[in-house]
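Example record

The entry below shows one chain as it appears in the dataset: sequence first, then structure tokens.
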Amino acid sequence: MILGAAELARTIAAREESAAAMVAACLARIEERNGGLNAVTVTLADEARAAAREADERLARGDPAPPLLGVPFTVKENIDVRRTVTSLGLRGGVRAEHDAPHIAHLRAAGAIPIARGNLPDLALRWHTDNARHGATVNPFDDTLSPGGSSGGDAVALAAGMAAFAVGSDYGGSLRVPAALAGVYALRPTPGRLAQAFGAPPLMSRQLMATDGPLARRAEDLRLLLEVMARPGASDPRYTPAPLGEGAGASVTLVLADDRVRRAGAALAAAGYDVVETEVPRLEEAAQLWLDLVGFEVALGALERLREEGSEGTRRSAEALFALGRPLDGAAYARALGERHALAAEWAEFLERHPLLLGPVSTCAPWPVGHDLGGPDALREQWWGFRLTVATACLGLPAVSLPVGFDARGLPAGVQLVGPRWREGRLLAAAEIIEAEVI
């Protein structure tokens, strides 16, 4: 499976390939590769084959093809897929009666869930390993982490097990594994996609967390967003905002390195005004993410990890959130107020600098177990992700995209960040970089 979702949908609709053959190819790829990668946890083979047959019969009757008819995809195991367990990587887990709203929208568009993707326990680690299913392997170097928390889906996509995937991003959980696997990911503005939360979400999750797609091509992200960004009564955050189409007149390079400058050069060649500058109070926004999420994780998630999770995720999470400033209720309320002030400052900055281009991480890919090295290791990792967690903290949309490979043959990734509800601008820039750099 090497086609992107949009190209595969066109191929199936034209009856150049059957949906049944494409599902069979993905299932064969899972059989071939997943034993060594542990990217997917559950394969939905029978249901996927039945859905593919129905898709082919629909085309044979001459019925119009919905936009993703017959296209197979994986779903991270913290997102509801009907009749499967939403385990969150824990030893327990609940069988979902209904799809999450955006999964239902994908089904309605003809897409076919084919497997569930692996993740760290409670999605609380930038490495994919858990008590229920074990570790996912980096497909380029098994001594290196595949990232997290949507690591299983990113690896499955990179290994050809599906045409696209659906994951989540609370602090880089889409962008980090996408960068390490050499695939694309879109973190929409929180509220762009209607989600199903298994329990009432605490405030930072309401403000910062979002599900989103991973894909092989930039054009796939646009198609998937258009399908997924539809109403769902379970999420009152849902906002039917326009996509903010149109290319930005300028792009600002942040924490620029060779990868970032190479992508910036592609935009400059397309007529963008490219400058390098600093964004407002980046370190403070990154620290605020750590403080707010750490306060809420301590309210129950850490205890749940001790009871149902893996030792590795517990140790990593405890060391990471120990770096946050201790908050009581009053300090937590003040921190939420500070987040609002920072978001306003960034909104004003983005009025003048409508597109940011920077690294997903300033650190080299890290060895498996690096985040078990105590506070210094976690501080290094968090600081490398400072642009990623700062933009999550402020509820901004972002696209992670590959820009080739580094000297070791590992994927090199960057991210585009823009104002809230301006995903169309990010996708337009991503398509330009893809055409010029990849």
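Notes for this example: The longest strand covers residues 398-405. Residues 5-228 form a domain with the Amidase signature (AS) enzymes fold (CATH 3.90.1300.10).
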